[in-house]
Amino acid sequence: MEALTKAEVFEWLRSRSISVTNDGYLYFDGYDRRCIAVELPKKPYRVVALANELLPYNELIPFQGAILWVRQWGIWSELVERSGFRIMEMVRQVHGSSKSLQEAPGYLFDAPEVIDLQVCLLQPLLVGWDAFMVPASGDYIVATSHDETTCILTRTAETERRLLEELGPWNPEKNSDWYFRGLGIPSNRG
What we know:
It is a single chain. By secondary structure, this protein is an alpha+beta fold. It has one domain (2-180). It contains 6 helices and 10 strands, in the order E-H-E-E-E-H-E-H-E-H-E-E-E-H-E-H. An 8-stranded antiparallel beta sheet has the order 1-6-5-7-8-9-4-10. Strands 2-3 form a two-stranded antiparallel ribbon. A hairpin with a 4-residue loop joins strand 8 (140-144) and strand 9 (149-154). Helix 3 runs antiparallel to helix 4 (114-127). It is globular, with a radius of gyration of 16 Å. 34% of the residues are buried. The model has no long low-confidence stretch (mean pLDDT 89).
């Protein structure tokens, strides 16, 4: 795992043709607006299972790496957020990084680090931070939100179909309005 600054995160995203709004929201420029919305499960163990399901691997496709960018924290009190900060700090230390979340809010994971990605993705889901996870392929974007909904933006209709099927147990809904409303992202050009 490598800790990345915001500028390094943006460069990684650009290399995969992923655009960023002025407010820090990710989207696929020049593609249809495809968004799958999933509400967070009420039971904590189901949140762990959902985090695993959002990761870019399965029995047929090995994990090839991904990036996690924590866009916004400090939404809740220190009491609520301190455990998430501690876990993120500990993951960084295990990988030899002393940078804080404020200095480097991005995490780049390589193929053997899928469990570390799952641990780190769980923190925004559980604590209520706004964050993005993007597989190395750049095929989709997972957007977590402090309002208990997770959106998955897909580059292609085929990826959308596959993820809708894989996320079936979480009652996913096609809902591009939820994510795109008010972001000033150019509409369907693809």
